[in-house]
Protein backbone atom coordinates (compact mmCIF):
# COMPACT_ATOMS: atom_id res chain seq x y z
CA UNK A 1 0.00 0.00 0.00
CA UNK A 2 2.15 2.92 -1.23
CA UNK A 3 -0.74 5.31 -0.54
CA UNK A 4 -0.73 5.08 3.25
CA UNK A 5 3.01 4.46 3.23
CA UNK A 6 3.46 7.88 1.62
CA UNK A 7 1.44 9.51 4.40
CA UNK A 8 3.53 7.76 7.05
CA UNK A 9 6.71 8.95 5.36
CA UNK A 10 5.46 12.54 5.41
CA UNK A 11 4.48 12.26 9.09
CA UNK A 12 7.87 10.77 10.03
CA UNK A 13 9.67 13.49 8.08
CA UNK A 14 7.67 16.17 9.91
CA UNK A 15 8.44 14.59 13.29
CA UNK A 16 12.15 14.39 12.47
CA UNK A 17 12.22 18.06 11.44
CA UNK A 18 10.33 19.11 14.58
List keywords for this structure.
rod-shaped, single chain, mainly alpha, 0% strand, 1 helix, 18 residues
Tell me about this structure.
It is a single chain. The protein contains one helix and no strands. It has 18 residues and is mainly alpha-helical.
Largest sheet: none
Overall 3D shape: rod-shaped
Determine the number of helices (DSSP H or I, runs of at least 4 residues): 1
Stretches where pLDDT falls below 50 for ≥5 residues? Answer: none
The amount of beta strand, in percent, is under 5%
Strands, total number: 0
| SSE topology string | H
Helix share bin: over 70%
Quickly give the structural class: mainly alpha
What's the N-to-C terminus distance? 26 Å
Q: Report the mean per-residue pLDDT as an integer.
A: 87
User: What is the CA-atom radius of gyration, in angstroms?
Assistant: 8 Å
Give a topology summary.
Blueprint: H1 2-17
Q: Quick gist of this model?
A:
It contains 1 helix and no strands.
Amino acid sequence: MPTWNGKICIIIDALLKM
